[in-house]
Amino acid sequence: MSPSPNTPARDRLRIAIQKSGRLAEPARALLASCGLSWRESRDRLFCYGESLPIDLLLVRDDDIPGLIDQGVCDLGVVGRNVLLEQDRGRGGNGAAPTFREWRALGFGGCRLSIAVPDSWEWQGAQQLAGRRIATSYPALLGQWLQEQGIAADIVMLSGSVEIAPRLGQADAICDLVSSGATLAANQLKPVQTILESEAVLAGPAHELDSVRGELAELLLRRLDGALRIRHSKLLLFQAPRRVLPDLLPLLPDAEAPTVMRLDDNDDLALQALCHGAVTWQRLEELKRAGARGLMVLPVEGMLA
């Protein structure tokens, strides 16, 4: 029987992630790449960790910072935009931050941007003075306006922000932008980015206790390894010793290669962990420089 999500066990680490949405599957995949596995409850709201005492809560992303604040969960995977909006909102009430970003996770990238009608000739942020700006991020927008010394009216909307200018509710908007297709469909154009966002691992501002702190450190080590090798490949090849000075400059994104001497000749066997794309063009350049037997292998895991 799974423990109740309202009564966290002190010897288990609890992570909140989106139940559904664009961060849900990438978050599960990243955690699974760290060697975690779970047994899901019947209501699909709780996943009991089987490989390690690390459980998942499946919730709305907007709820994740609050769950960390309340101690219902220890960590959460959430958009930086959501985390900072709620942090700035609390700060406006004079409250000290209770949660913070622990790691950027490299997926779910987007930007919080000011967008204006296509008909505007954008000449700078001061054009927003005295205007109405619709947004779902009043705290972040308010902070940015204050930093720019701009007095504008913030129109708070919980959804369909991009349609506000067409309905006469606002003159401009501040909303998340990914491809820009939604803005274009509403005759809007992005003109000013106020926040670069992506999925982050959030946690409390304070340190976790000994047991959960150790689990968190273990998870962070595995996450760092998984993120480091996400786009990495192991390159294996052989080459004469004399061409080594020509080959190494062709591996600028690689860690220091492991070099082994082959028996009874002057040839070397090399293996290099490359953190960039190992393209056909790069392989052909290596071959022209004297490499042979080139082999590219995926990297399943890495622990520094």
Describe the 3D structure.
- The structure is a single chain.
- The protein is α+β, with helices and mostly antiparallel strands and 304 residues long.
- The chain has nine helices and 16 strands.
- The protein folds into three domains: 126 residues, Periplasmic binding protein-like II (D-Maltodextrin-Binding Protein, domain 2); 88 residues, 3-Layer(aba) Sandwich (D-Maltodextrin-Binding Protein, domain 2), CATH 3.40.190.10; 66 residues, Alpha-Beta Plaits (2-Layer Sandwich), CATH 3.30.70.120.
- The protein has a seven-stranded mixed β-sheet with strand order 2-3-4-1-5-12-6, with helices on both faces.
- α3 crosses α4.
- The longest helix is centred in the C-terminal third of the chain and has 19 residues.
Describe the main β-sheet briefly. Answer: 7 strands, mixed
Q: Judging by the overall fold, what is the CATH architecture of the largest domain? A: 3-Layer(aba) Sandwich
Q: Please report the number of helical segments.
A: 9
CATH fold-level name of the largest domain: D-Maltodextrin-Binding Protein, domain 2
Shape descriptor reads: globular
Low-confidence stretches: 1-7
Secondary structure: number of strands: 16
> What proportion strand?
25-35%
Can you identify the CATH superfamily of the largest domain?
Periplasmic binding protein-like II
Order of SSEs = EHEEEHEHEEEHEHEHEEHEHEEHE
What gyration radius follows from the Cα positions, in whole Å?
25 Å
Q: State mean pLDDT (0 to 100 scale).
A: 89
Q: In the residues, how many domains can be counted?
A: 3
The helix content is 25-40%
Question: For the terminal residues, how far apart are their CA atoms?
Answer: 36 Å
Q: Strand pairing plus helix content: what structural class?
A: alpha+beta
Strand order of the largest sheet: 2-3-4-1-5-12-6
CATH class identity of the largest domain: Alpha Beta
